[in-house]
Amino acid sequence: MIYAITLLFLCQLAGEVIVQAIGITFPGPVLGMGLLFLVLFLRRGSTEAFDGVADTLLKNLSLLFVPAAVGVVQQIDLIQENWLAISAALIVSTVLTLIVTVYVFRFVAQWTRGTEA
Length: 117
Hints:
The chain has about 120 residues and is an all-alpha fold. It is about 85% helix and about 0% strand. It contains six helices and no strands.
């Protein structure tokens, strides 16, 4: 279990370090998640210990939203000033995500159907 949580933290740290070193405006934890995906892909899957840590984090996921909610409340004036742009960005990004998801699903479904035949 210690190995699994250490792997999670190391991937997040690596993402943060890379973002800071390159100087890009990209969330370090997101890059760390990509690195974690790469590690798990190269290892050909997860371990039982990692699955246990992931399940524990998922069970307590609602606690991780508290800082985000506090941040929204602290920036309520800025949100009120830019509500139209924020709403438009949310709607457009949601629609684009749905469209991309449909096409990826169709591609994967067709690809897996082709490999089964």
